[in-house]
């Protein structure tokens, strides 16, 4: 796995309201979203010819596939020797496996100073989850987000929380609550882990400093947790108490290290006039609320750090509507959306330039400023799929003017008719007289 660096950040408790349930997070049954750390076509680009022993990279691959259907095909970045990088190869460059970037010594020093342990560092996994289209890897060709982030609609990174379950006071029940809410969790365990049915198998390789698993389910009848293990296979199980008390804790302080990562979705509302007149200015207001009950929750640790939360507008067709002078897009939501239930608002001033029918769409995103061992300072854009839209009709200004003119003309015609009528009556009277 990874060497556990001294950069252990307590980020946030990620507990959810208790629910009495059991089972596997939907989609992970029968090996769903499973990718191993070896033998799945993802080789070792930073050490060609060497095996891929990256359990944490494989866990991130599975997590990304759960949230974003990443798959396992070649992306857009070329690799030495031909072809393009596969997902785990891209993630490996971002997480800086084996210190390929040479941040702590000569490239490939493998973190321990002796040059013998493959792995990556705690907090660099969180940086890999934050990674977005504005980012570049510590080394290698991945320099504008992952391949699956090239479409701007998927270019945002995830909210990511590195922490220690021991320090935040998390319990076994809290883990079950997380699973019941369909949130998988990457857990970093000590090297003694062997799941049920594998007691005679060798330990996962390169785990002198630990091993990474993806927690995906539990069974209270059997008293087990369920994992996708990058080495031992999919849907493996292990006794709940033994895992929590003996396998998960690491080091003298019994640190239960984890990474929570998920899209940073919020409830979005958009309000604007239903129709305006060509040439008019109008306002669009976007309200965003971090959904109640979604992680992280207030009062249960430190919130996700979001340097700037923002609303972003888009409209179709693009021609015909403009932002008013001085209006930025995206615009700040007030910097207040940090934990479950918090909200913010932004108002956009716009101008209707051309008549027509328009759809205006609003999304929310945030800029996170953070640091990790391989990235002392970095910034990423995170967000989710939540959006809201509304229709706008821009009426032609000339139509209104024409209506006014027509009304005047009609009135004039009536007057003329009256005058004509009066003239005819006068002539008749004159004749009679």
Question: Would you kindly provide a written description of the structure presented here, covering whatever features stand out?
Answer:
- The chain folds into 2 domains: 23-262, Cathepsin B, Chain A (Alpha-Beta Complex), CATH 3.90.70; 267-397, Sandwich (Immunoglobulin-like), CATH 2.60.40.10.
- By secondary structure, the protein is an alpha+beta fold.
- It has helices spanning 55-68, 87-95, 124-130, 172-180, 240-247, 397-432, and strands at 23-24, 159-164, 185-189, 211-219, 224-229, 233-239, 257-262, 267-271, 275-277, 281-289, 308-316, 321-323, 331-332, 343-352, 356-372, 375-395.
Task: Based on the model shown, name its key terms.
single chain, 433 residues, alpha+beta, Cathepsin B, Chain A, Immunoglobulin-like, seven-stranded antiparallel β-sheet, five-stranded mixed β-sheet, 6 helices, 16 strands, 19% helix, disordered N terminus, disordered C terminus
């Amino acid at each position: 796995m990874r060497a556990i660096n001294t950069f252990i950040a307590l980020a946030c408790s990620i507990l959810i309201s208790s629910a009495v349930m059991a089972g596997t997070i939907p989609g992970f049954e029968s090996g769903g979203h499973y990718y191993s750390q070896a033998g799945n076509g993802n080789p070792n680009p930073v050490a060609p010819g060497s095996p891929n022993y990256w359990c944490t990279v494989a866990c991130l691959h599975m997590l990304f596939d759960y949230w974003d259907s990443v798959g396992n095909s070649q992306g857009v970045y070329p690799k030495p020797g031909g072809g393009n990088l596969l997902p785990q190869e891209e993630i490996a460059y971002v997480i800086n496996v084996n210190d390929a970037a040479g941040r702590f010594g000569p490239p490939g020093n493998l973190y321990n100073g002796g040059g013998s342990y493959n792995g990556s560092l705690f907090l660099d996994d969180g940086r890999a989850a934050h990674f977005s289209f504005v980012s570049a890897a510590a080394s290698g060709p991945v320099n504008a987000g992952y391949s699956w982030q090239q479409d701007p609609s998927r270019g945002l990174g995830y909210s990511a929380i590195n922490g220690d379950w021991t320090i935040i006071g998390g319990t076994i029940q809290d883990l079950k609550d997380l699973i019941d809410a369909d949130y998988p969790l990457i857990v970093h365990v000590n090297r003694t882990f062997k799941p049920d049915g594998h007691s005679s198998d060798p330990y996962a390789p390169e785990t002198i400093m630990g091993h990474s698993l993806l927690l995906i389910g539990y069974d209270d009848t059997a008293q087990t947790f369920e994992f996708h293990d990058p080495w031992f296979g999919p849907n493996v199980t292990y006794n709940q108490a033994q895992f929590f008390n003996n396998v998960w804790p690491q080091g003298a302080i019994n640190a239960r290290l984890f990474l929570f990562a998920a899209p940073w979705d919020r409830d979005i509302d958009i309000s604007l006039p239903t129709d305006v007149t060509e040439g008019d200015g109008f306002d669009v207001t976007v309200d965003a609320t971090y959904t109640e009950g979604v992680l992280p929750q207030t009062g249960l640790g430190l919130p996700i750090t979001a340097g700037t939360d923002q609303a972003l507008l888009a409209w179709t067709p693009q021609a015909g509507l403009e932002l008013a002078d001085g209006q930025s897009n995206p615009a700040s939501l007030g910097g207040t959306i940090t934990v479950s239930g918090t909200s913010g608002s932004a108002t956009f001033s716009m101008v209707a330039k051309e008549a027509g029918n328009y759809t205006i769409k609003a999304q929310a995103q945030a800029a996170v400023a953070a640091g990790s061992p391989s990235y002392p300072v970095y910034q990423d854009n995170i967000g989710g799929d939540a959006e809201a839209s509304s229709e706008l009709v821009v009426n032609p200004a000339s139509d209104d003017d024409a209506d006014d003119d027509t009304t005047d003309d009609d009135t004039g015609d009536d007057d003329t008719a009256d005058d004509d009528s009066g003239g005819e009556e006068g002539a008749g009277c004159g004749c009679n007289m």
